[in-house]
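hey can u check if this looks right to u? its 128 residues, i copy pasted from the old doc so theres a chance i mangled smth
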Amino acid sequence: MTLLPKHPAARRVAALWLLACLVTLAVMLLRPGLYEDDRNALAVLVPMYYLSLPLGHAGLMAGIDIRTALYLGGTVPGILAEGLFLWLVLGVLGYAQWFLLLPLVARKCQQLLHFVFNRDAAKNRPAR
């Protein structure tokens, strides 16, 4: 299993995905509120959240659990660290979901359909 899609069109879409992730990171890092611990600076990550659904939601919930555990442990993460963590989680999970898992599931479904519906054709072939 490679990390890059095999089809040229899928490679272009994956490159656009990675470019969008990098642009989102740049915009997030350039927001002045990020360095003033303003939670509104993380609003830049909302498009990445929607583009990485449904796995992105699971990553976001895991991030909330980690942040809560850190608060209860006495460590308060800054907005910058939280933003970088969320950006990384949303980017990795979105890429994995759309360019690794979805093609894998589609191939397996295609193989299953081929096996189920072409099974009788193999039995009805004349013997050589």
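The chain has a mean pLDDT of 88.
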